[in-house]
Amino acid sequence: MSKSIYVGNLPWSANEEQVQDLFAEHGKVLSVKLVSDRETGRARGFGFVEMEDSEADAAIEALDNFSLGGRALRVNEAKPRTPRVPRY
Q1: Can you give the residue ranges of the RRM domain (predicted)?
Q2: What domains, with CATH codes, occur in the chain?
Q3: What pTM value is reported for the model?
Q4: Torsion angle of alpha carbons 83, 38, 14, 19, nearest 10°?
């Protein structure tokens, strides 16, 4: 089984390759997805990493509050997305 990890407070300059390399130190990374603004295309400062369960737990433990680009990362297990209510 795999686990999705939320990675927040990323520096604006971070890219998927940097995040992959950081998490790869703790196990096999299955995927990395950094979130960008739909309108501007600029990074929003967070993303998701998918890893195997046991390796994901070790990565969360090791990288929560890790300093990257002068910012303390927030790393925890991603929560399922809740459906959004459309605005009219």
Answers
A1: 3-80
A2: 2-77 (3.30.70.330)
A3: 0.88
A4: 40
28-52: buried (b, 16+ CB within 10 Å) or exposed (e) per residue? ebeebebeeeeeeeebebebebbbb
Render pLDDT for 14-67 as a digit per residue (tens, 0 to 9): 999 999 999 999 999 999 999 998 899 888 999 999 999 989 999 999 999 999
DSSP string of the chain, one letter each residue: -EEEEEEES--TT--HHHHHHHHHTTS-EEEEEEEE-TTT--EEEEEEEEEEHHHHHHHHHHHTT-EETTEE-EEEEPPPPPPPPPP-
